[in-house]
Every structure is written in C-alpha cells, then in structure tokens.
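Progress against Task 2.4 (sequence-to-structure conversion) is shown through the following example record, which the project officer requested during the mid-term review.
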Amino acid sequence: MTLLPAVISFLVSLIVSAIVIYVVTKMFGGKGGIGTAFLAALVGAVIYSVAFYFLGGGTLASVLGGVAWLIALGSLYKIGWLKALVIAIVIWVAALLVGIVLPTVAGPL
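Structure tokens generated for the chain above:
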C-alpha cells in the first residue's frame, strides 16, 4: 500500500470512529461534541499504535492500550472508570457492526 491510500484509509477510519464515539457518548449523556469524539478517536489510534510498536503487538499491547484509552476517554469526557468501560464496550460493538456493514453497503462489484 502506498502512502496516499494509507492516509485516506486512516482518515476514513478516524472519521467513522469519531462518529461512532460521538453517537455512543451522546446515548450515555456525554457533554462533548464531535470535536471531543474526534480527539478521542485520534488519541485511541495513537495509544494503540504506540502500544503495538513498543510491545510488539499481541494481547499485552491490546490490554495496556485499552486501559490507556479508557483513561483518555474518562479524562476527555470527565467520567469514571465504570462508565468509560461501558461506553468503550458499546463503542467497540458499534464499530464492529459498522465495520461489517459499511463495506457491503455498495453491494457486490
């Protein structure tokens, strides 16, 4: 993959993630706007990239990256651990569903 398609793919993923985060946090009474959701998506991408880079991927990188993102999510939305965990789980499920459905929207090519 060359640089341009990689950048486009990253930006599309970031936008979709921000929309999912925005909708889910609004469902839970979040006060932040789309900018906060975009920042949460960006911070999440950076945290996971750093964790995977330094820990070489795997379960440990996923767990530590997830905990770090929970801290970031809690800080950005000024919520506690439990609420951040519930929101993160709903975001993960929603993102999974979007990831399954979105590529099939155009139908078979």
